[in-house]
């Protein structure tokens, strides 16, 4: 498969993807953002001491979940020693521990843990992806990196559009990344002014999927109690209801 190395190539390749496996393969062969490529490969080479005997994925991380998903979970970017190590979004780090435990309680995942890409995890009615597909330094993509990566997100949403009913945005970055999807995928003008992000924030216009805000499942939020398991359970209960799954 040909590698993509410019923003123009990303856009063209994303638009050509005929299905999710095709898109996932193209995502994994993206080299368009030199800073992100250098960082993800450096992390994969140096490695964290606890994972020194493991071979890191060290590439962009595709989405994960069924093609007929009714719920989408939109994150910021893969973790340097999580998805960048395992090759599966939210897999292998403490954020994923919290997220998949909540999804299991909600009946959206077959098991409460996600430690490796071959651990048997399957999702029900839900697909997870990130606004930026490479692990960024300090978890902070630049605006140019965000925009260069956006066609992958737009095409992924387009491919699951027939069934998608609800998007759960994990954090303000994901919340902001959703608005361009409205115009690029649904032909809908984003609201102005933009609704403010907040935990439990809800936006709907009746033509595109409902949008729910959720504090990110970062260690900073979960360790301090800003985001509790009960708060996550409430979000997934609302998402299931809006998706017609309750």
Describe this structure in words.
This protein is an alpha/beta fold and 246 residues long. Helices cover 41% and strands 9% of the residues. It has helices spanning 7-16, 20-28, 34-46, 83-86, 94-105, 143-160, 172-185, 219-224, 229-242; strands at 71-75, 126-130, 166-170, 202-203, 210-214. The chain has a 5-stranded mixed sheet, sandwiched between helices. Helix 5 (94-105) packs across helix 9 (229-242). The longest helix is centred in the middle third of the chain and has 18 residues, at 143-160. The model has no long low-confidence stretch (mean pLDDT 96).
Structural class by SSE content: alpha/beta
Helix-strand pattern: HHHEHHEHEHEEHH
Mean pLDDT: 96
Shape assignment: globular
Compute the number of helices.
9
Q: Largest sheet, described in full?
A: 5 strands, mixed
Q: Give, in spatial order, the strands making up the sheet with the most strands.
A: 2-1-3-5-4
Radius of gyration: 17 Å
Q: Strand percentage, roughly?
A: 5-15%
Number of strands: 5
Helix content: 40-55%
Query: What are the low-pLDDT stretches, counting only 5+ consecutive residues below 50?
Result: none
**Ends apart, CA distance between termini:** 41 Å
Which helices and strands occur, and which strands form pairs?
Blueprint: H1 7-16, H2 20-28, H3 34-46, E1 71-75, H4 83-86, H5 94-105, E2 126-130, H6 143-160, E3 166-170, H7 172-185, E4 202-203, E5 210-214, H8 219-224, H9 229-242
Parallel strand pairs: 1-2, 1-3, 3-5
Antiparallel strand pairs: 4-5
Helix pairs in contact: 1-6, 5-9, 6-7
